[in-house]
């Protein structure tokens, strides 16, 4: 029987962010607005989504497998989500397994009322906490690390909601940008390192929490500010109140958000993502110059860096690879003979633009390397005289434990090959990666502060900024970089 | 209750081609290959698709509403389509109404065996023929003009299949690129003017018929040649045979295929679509120069012309408008208040790239003008100092009757406004359309031959190259250009 | 892998009627009333159903796989069926293959307007006519014999609808009780032998056509009369008009309708089905008396005959076999071990009622004999001292070609065994079938008139009352009974 | 818009049992056998069902809305349920609200392994316990009282599973027949009064727990014995072990199981249900004799009592009311005019059997009385000279809190009318209910022991055998009848 699977050359060979969150407090049609916000955050997770709303007396929950536009555009669905307060979540399926029971926001009726929570990021001590809670009789209904937070709030001995929430999040390690909804308030919270993004917005006086600014733009909301690393912001009818329940630490925002995850029209901490990517491309042209006729992006993720490269190098930018807009996730592979045809489901090189040319090919990153290999071959088959691959980030060498779907280290091309070997593997005439210092420079830093790195760049450097309790198998094993960085959450 | 409808500023304000066709003769896994070919032609119609295969003794039919990747990637579906010969069709729903019974290919067991047919184009005398056939007792099971062809073949008094097919197509007026499958042969046929494209390909000795060359590229097939206007090509186990059943005429290929319909990586009659669009952009820069800081495409259809414009004008090209890749066809509009928010479901302007700049905005065409109005406004809201709109085609003034979904003339902005009025309407600082002569020049013509136009450009010129019998309401009114075989409608 | 199939002992070992028809003319909410009528006729076909309505200007068609209560109770479906005239059909899937395209009523836009038709029965010359029509260019969109009638009407050279209809039905052989709807009238028609039932009803002045009187009862309509064999009744705004387009013949109503097909609360030609079945039971007690303690029906089809038997024999009637009301058509058979367990999905014998008793078991008929074998065994396993099987019809020896799903003759137990062999096969202490004369006597006849039988009893006697053209394979072979108009097949 | 609702005269005016449970330990294809067992228990709950299996290392859960035959006959579903141990549940939707999250068995990974539980019955202190647990931080993921049991086991401080289970069930009040599955054992448990049934069976050495014996019969399993009231039976690889964790009390089995809930072929505590119903009918004939021509059951629930009545009274038994076997739960009610037609979706009186007759109509119970009213009218409309209604149970005056769906007391006809008023209301010539003493006599008792009633008959007597903590709103309020009866659970 035929396998239903992704054809090898069509696999989307990228790291994948696992979530987007969005909430609005005090606005008519709140759920409809959350649906729009999540639609703008769809690139952060496409497998499933959910919205919880509150109408002053009751909570309403809708969770569905599939895209926002497939589920949350149905009037029947939106109409069931009454109320002027709502939070939502869109997710990539890997973390915690798929299935409806893992779709967020999670909701429970606690002793003092309903409590809903949506989470972007990943905890590094969730299994450890879960085992402790189960011994005390807590029953978990999902395999998601996020449910752990819900149970910590539920079993806290503190009296009021804020104190219970603080009690809960203080026990967490890892990355968490949270949006929670109770019968009185909406709460936003970022882990002390601020690994995942979270911004505060304003729509005609109603507060919004969102993963990225593009989710404010879609509804014409005003960007107020980024929620600060380690900040817990509580939104009620009387406005916002901020708490800082964690020991202060220097922030370590995920640098890969700039490389690939965030939408180019979003801005984080004052940096516009599109402009950062163009500067990355310019820096790449500086670090790895090449004599060539045209610069071609691997669409669409390589496009801004390719434009930056082309402008800096003075080489014409061309759309030499055309992307099929109707690519779904899977395609038929009925027989070996078809699999071996090497069909071009996703991309096609435009021979007329390429034939006889020396081509600079710009992509954002190399993960397993299989896609790069196929694309170089496709460009060669279209008649390129030379193919020079330029990668808009350093080699990715280590997995992420902070809410990003990454293959195990052994599958990362850069973890088992030198650049020379990779050049051979993808059969390019030359291959150049952006340096880690160059990446920091594109972010307007003088360079990486190795004593106290300004970003989380563990996927390039293996320098994890938090404990990895669940990985270590031992609560006593401290991660060196955490100790070295001085701060940790205990 | 809430309306489920397209928000006004999100409506896809374009002409829409209505079909793509694909067939392969004599190749294992024929249906799987047709599915791949149709996937590459998905831009020509997204509402529904079908495949008919033949295994030497039996025909198999699968027709589904939805994308190829949603339906024809299921092993169960493909496995039901036995055989080494298959044809397929992907369609845009407008012509003949939606519903499964209108999904092509059409199939019938005729007296001498099964007969399947797939059609790109539109007949201009289908209703007239249908009335005649019904009077003779023919029963129509769809509302599609294509079924008319099937009945003409079925009721022909000729003896063999070729003669019956010729008998049928000779009665047709309008645009038709056909692929048919019988128990002996696959037949391709283009109307005498060659209004819609159809190419012949070869995959390791198996013949392919396809609407565009990109459908050959996806499976690595070789482009052999375009099927000629007025040619009927019959493919059997013994090779191909060509017939020319129509009175010879000069060809009138649809010029709008170059402007918008065809995929940029396709080539038609020797012209690469991407390169034509770049030349259109360059020509546009020549015709309507402007002092500006950046050139921004309306993605994705305006991109090649924008690149051409930028290169010719020496102004930097920027992706100032970001497209949401997860746009479905409809989105919620629960209340007036949300409808009036002017949400940006599909596009977002990137303020950082635009603020304070003089912007050239390049789009492929203006139909109703509503999208242009919204996009100009969005770019202004993002801080542009000036917005100069440049359109990569002449003003569209007239509906198409040849297989393109166009609004009625009264809804076409250019049919009721001058360029000055349109500039005001879309609130641009300036507005420039490519001239009809410029468009022909981008196609390497010296200009339009008004006595015998080289292309069908009726949507710009109202010069329809065939009779419009169903429109005219009279069978006796002959269309001058048909009589003159080379004349035109003026 | 597990087979999804009917467990052997659970197969419904019965002949199956293939259709029920219903129409109403001139009543608000016509489609809703048709749905109710079809619901009452659901026992005549459970695989699929359809309704066509007409609102004075337009026809509306809904056809669905599944039960009436699953599909035609949805307000959205009923609301799409506008108008005060409607006809409907419910079908058993065997004839002509399954699939939506075979679901009736069939509808076509003919030259003089829409025409819908629903058919109970089966034509014995449909394939022969179809081949002729295909040679003339007719295109068939289903594999149902009913579509043939539609094409005959469409291709008739007659001018007005009545004449075209008459022209069509005169060419038919076999069994047909038809209900048709045009833009002017509703037409009912029974074949000249009246093989299948069709009654005329009245609901507050609106005429109704229905397969059985129980479909009048459900809506409180008044029974007017049976449509006569060979009658064509035309209902318009001005009332009814009758035509007799066929050569007169003695009627041959299907006697098996009394034995099993019709609902017990229906009446046909003055005979109430329940009362006939009780008389059959009494006659059976007379023909095959037995010394026993209790009479038990095989539920539910054997119940009226068992009551009749028990009353006539003076033996207590008991519900010794309990039927599971939730039996679907299929059940799991994951492994051989479970298949060999002999699970009792449909029936269970109640040990307490049976243990130590001499049991008379009454069933309506024996087809393959497998169910009888299992049920006798089940009753024995429950402790019965003796099991005497009594069958409320003669041995079924021959297939039906008039709209009943029957196995081929070789699979009919009675066609390959004597009564003695059958007694052994089902392992009963004794086995008695009603005689053919006894069956006629239960219908108040003195006996069967072998020269001119009063009923069609071909499944018992092989005496087919019409030509079987498609079976014979020769158009020239005339069936004697047709020529003789009152003769029979011997 | 049309309402999708049950037509008034078609509402199923009965009490409804809410659950059936089934488990098997140590048998290949365990889940397939559970599906068969649940199919036999389908009459105890039709809205949803679930199965949990265990294969020695992992648990597998499938829960679906709909009938067993709709969901658990799919090989794909059954094949996902690996292992030789499995329990299942079929439910009626009312208790705890509908929705998949309330479908049983419930399953959780507790600290010492997986734990699944299925429950027939209803707790009368679940809300009270739930509030306490929530205060301690337990998170409930359903609205079902059964989840409470799961949390009590999870939060028990006892060490081993048996002790934790005992700790949990000792806190419960109300009715509970439980089947639980852990990674080591299957546990059955009945509340101390044994209100709901539970039997132990044996299939070739594998133990089975089931609500009724008919679920043993379907798979040919042997009935071993009833699980005793207050017994906890633990099944492991080493056999069974019994515990009696509750203070001993006299049993109070639900007497309504004999009247209506249980399947007639089941036996409880030595009484065969069909035989009890026949004796009820005979007792009814004795208590309320009548001069009549025929005895007609309201099918199917009144049939055994009607047979008993007819035999005792010497009046012929007739199937005068025919039931439509294809009744779904809802039917269209598009307009007032159709609603007022009084359509007969479910039953039809057979005029020929009834006309001119004096009819005894036998039904099992009267709840709201609306159905009785319609049926009496229907029998009168069919020409009955007299209609004498006989009810095979005492008047139902009080709601049930032990797992039966009953209307509030104010909607029970007998709670607001005398028998004379009821006779008028249903427009019968006479109306007779079985006496409470007569009901006990049909169960071979000399009569009801009012000091210590042998059964729970609260729906007739308001004598509730347990505390109704959640109802009382106060944990200190003792129910008088419980005190008076001497025994209670503390």
Automatic annotation (TrEMBL), chains A, B, C, D:
Amino acids binding Mg(2+): 301, 363-364
SUPFAM superfamilies: N-terminal nucleophile aminohydrolases (Ntn hydrolases), PRTase-like
Keyword terms of this UniProt record: 4Fe-4S, Glutamine amidotransferase, Glycosyltransferase, Iron, Iron-sulfur, Magnesium, Metal-binding, Purine biosynthesis, Transferase
Residue span(s) of domain Glutamine amidotransferase type-2: 19-238
Record-level Gene Ontology MF annotations: 4 iron, 4 sulfur cluster binding; amidophosphoribosyltransferase activity; magnesium ion binding
InterPro entries, alphabetized: GATase_2_dom, Ntn_hydrolases_N, PRTase-like, PRTase_dom, PurF, PurF_N
Residues covered by region (Disordered): 470-490
Keyword RNA-binding: no
Pfam family, one: GATase_7
Record's cofactor remark: Binds 1 [4Fe-4S] cluster per subunit. Binds 1 Mg(2+) ion per subunit.
Residues that coordinate or bind [4Fe-4S] cluster: 254, 400, 456, 459
Family annotation (CDD domains): GPATase_N, PRTases_typeI
Known pathway: Purine metabolism; IMP biosynthesis via de novo pathway; N(1)-(5-phospho-D-ribosyl)glycinamide from 5-phospho-alpha-D-ribose 1-diphosphate: step 1/2
EC number: 2.4.2.14
Active-site residue numbers: 19
Domain of life (superkingdom): Bacteria
GO biological process: 'de novo' IMP biosynthetic process; purine nucleobase biosynthetic process
Catalyzed reactions per annotation: 5-phospho-beta-D-ribosylamine + L-glutamate + diphosphate = 5-phospho-alpha-D-ribose 1-diphosphate + L-glutamine + H2O
Function, in words: Catalyzes the formation of phosphoribosylamine from phosphoribosylpyrophosphate (PRPP) and glutamine.
HAMAP family associated with the record: PurF (MF_01931)
Family: In the C-terminal section; belongs to the purine/pyrimidine phosphoribosyltransferase family.
UniProt protein name: Amidophosphoribosyltransferase
Organism encoding this protein: Nitratireductor aestuarii
